[in-house]
Amino acid sequence: MLQLNIVEAVNLALKQEMKRDKEIVLLGEDIGEDGGVFRVTDNLSKLYGNERVIDTPLAESGIVGVSFGMALAGLKPIAEIQFEGFLMPALDQIINHVSRIRNRSKGRYTAPLVIRCPIGGGIKALEHHSDSPETYFVHTPGLKVVIPSNPYDAKGLMISAIRDPDPVIFFEPKKVYRAIKQEVPEKEYLIPIGKANVVKEGGDVTLITYGAAVKTAYEAVQHISNISVELIDLRTLKPIDTETIIKSVKKTGKVVIAHEAQKTLGVAAEIIARINEKAFYSLEAPIERVTGYDIIVPYPKHEDYYFINQQRIINAVDKVMKNSI
Fold first, then answer.
1. Domains in the chain, ordered, with CATH?
2. Is the Cβ–Cβ distance between 67 and 111 less than 8 Å?
3. Under a CB-based contact definition with an 8 Å cutoff, are residues 152 and 9 in contact?
4. How many whole angstroms separate alpha carbon 304 and alpha carbon 235?
5. pLDDT tier at 126, thresholds 50, 70, 90
6. Which of 76, 149, 200, 226 suits 21 as a labelling partner, its CA being 20 to 30 A distant?
């Protein structure tokens, strides 16, 4: 076993998959000699050369468009977008082309393409460097959306994403890029896309979250001594593991959903709708959401006022318990 953080786990997955499959190529800004802004692709150009680890111009639409063409031609490109805010210039390629090619071609073509991108705040960055735009991509038919919360999941999910025949948006929560060290097998393993992880079992309330918020939620649960909390890490936002969610809700009857993204039309809203459709009569209290606010993420000085924290999660858990029938 290796002791790795998320950066190192993703790097290991890329290195091993590139060795296994010579059709895999990496594209992105400064990913070659510099190893990317967060060093996720560190040393890969030395191993596989600049024909497979390609430094691109600062042109996100071009990065994704070229990757899409490569995928149609039989390669397996992995495109890095340097920060989540820079995805916007590539939305035309992602939404109008990458996500639609299977449907447009009636199944003749697929796009085995991974778009990697750090997501979220917590590093005191500038504007366009701390957003959580996952809803845009969850809403888009034809895409899969993955967001690991820890090193072990990061490696296994990355390998699954690379081997998937369809396009995958792979978000990497930058707040916990190096905040968690974990045992990660050096040998190959896959974590299936679309399967949530029950981090901690409990019987009183279900706490659902993903990405960097999993660490915050887990730490909050450690301070809740009189309530049995079941903590679920979604891992994948599309497809969402509805089965695991509903099973837990039917057991506990009470739900808190936490995520860093803005509240309106966030992933929590979709989860609430699914619970209402499939487990409404199991609910013993109104569902609580702990989310970011419906504003642009503040500049570093005020960043901490925006993001969810342990106390907000603890307060939400207490509220659903007090409001239960």
1. 2-184 (3.40.50.970), 197-322 (3.40.50.920)
2. no
3. yes
4. 24
5. confident
6. 149
Q: Exposed e or buried b for every residue in 52-85, given b needs 16+ CB within 10 A?
A: bbbebeeebeebbbbbbebbbeebbbbbbbbbbb
Helix, strand or coil, per DSSP, at residue 127: coil
Q: Is 225 helix (H, G, I), strand (E, B) or coil?
A: coil
Catalytic pick among 97, 128, 129, 139: 129
Q: Confidence band (pLDDT; 50, 70, 90) for 268?
A: very high
Mean pLDDT within 62-71: 98
Q: What's the rounded Cα separation, in Å, for the pair 40 and 11?
A: 5
Q: Indicate if 259 belongs to the active site.
A: no
Q: What angle do CA 160, 84, 52 make, to 5 degrees?
A: 55
CB atoms within 10 A of CB 208: 28
* DSSP secondary structure code for residue 187 in this structure: S
Q: Mean of the pLDDT values across residues 186-210?
A: 98
Confidence grade of residue 301 (pLDDT, cut at 50, 70, 90):
confident
Secondary structure (DSSP) of 242-262: HHHHHHHHHHH--EEEEEEEE
- What average pLDDT score do residues 158-186 get? 97
Q: Which residues are CB-neighbours of 184 under 8 A, at least 6 positions away?
A: 1, 2, 3, 4, 8, 9, 12, 151, 152, 155
**Model confidence pLDDT, tens digit, residues 76-113:** 999 999 999 999 999 999 999 999 999 999 999 999 99
Which amino acid does the sequence have at 123?
I
Q: Write out the two tokens for 153.
A: 């999941």
Structure tokens at 166: 């369809």
